[in-house]
Structures are given as C-alpha cells and as structure tokens.
Description:
Elements: H1 2-14, H2 20-33, H3 38-54, H4 59-75, H5 81-92, H6 96-104, H7 115-125, H8 131-143, H9 149-162, H10 166-178
Amino acid sequence: TLSQTRNLEESIWLADADQLDHLEKAAARLVQQDPYSSFGHYLLAEMYLKQFKQSPSQLRLLKQASELGQQAIELNPKEDYGYIVSAQVLDLMEYTDNALDILEGDGRLPLQSSWRVDFLRGQLMSGQSSESQILKYFESALKTKNSSPDIIIPYVIATLQNGSSGAPLIEELRAWMKN
Length: 179
C-alpha cells in the first residue's frame, strides 16, 4: 500500500547502520513484487546509497544505485525518483554542479519540482549558497504536498548543529511548522 511504501522511504532515509540489511530486503522485495515500479527502484537505490555512505570502499553499491536510478528514469521519466538518485550519485562522486543541473532540469529533462527535489537541492547547496537561499529550498520542501517532515527536519537540524548560524534556521523551521 501507499502508506507502507511511504513508511519504507522514511525508514530508509532515517535508518541506522544496524537496520540496513532488513531495509534492503524490504526494498528488494518491493522491486520483485512490481518490477515496473520506478518508486521501488528509487527505494532500493536509496538503500544502496545509504550502504555506500557507511562503506565508501564498496564502489559496487554506488554502481548498483546508479543503475537503479537510471532504470527508475526509464520506467517513469516524469517522476523525480531516478533523477534524485542520479543527482546523489554525482554528488558522491564530487560532481555537485552536475547534480544540481539534474535537479534544475536543464530544459531537456521533464523533471517537475517535488519535496525531494527541493530537499536535495537544499542539501547540495549547503556551503555553496547563502543561508537564506538554502532556507527557501528547505521551506519549499516542507510546504510541498505529501512532503516528509520526518525526513527533512532531522537533516536540517543535524546540518545546523554543524554550522555556526543555526538559531535563525531553527526559528524559521518553527514558524514554517506552525503555518
């Protein structure tokens, strides 16, 4: 069901290392049940990206994620799923500008804005853009229909804890959540 797959997405994004094996099986099962699901391919790719971040020497995980992202694009080029994966793969390879180009759509891609696009754009722009610009992306991600605050807010807070000017952003988040 839709709520189960949405819960799986949140679980993958928020998972600790000890949960990865269980979640990988759940995502793989989703792809096996519906091999034409671009969302299933996206979830399994996200799982491999998460595992790669835990073990960066395992380049096969990055390759698998990239292939699944490409399959998600081929299965449904109008959805953001595969583009999100491709942008993350490029960023992990230190091609952040190319990753941002994917999210911008560059005229050739049919990518529509979504909470995932705005959230990832905010992540990728961290350190490259002004705090106010990054805030706009995170705000847009939070306000988009069907967004996932459980994914977005912990990341923003973790990012703030590493930065020096987090108090204004926390106040902004509180204001956004009230609206």
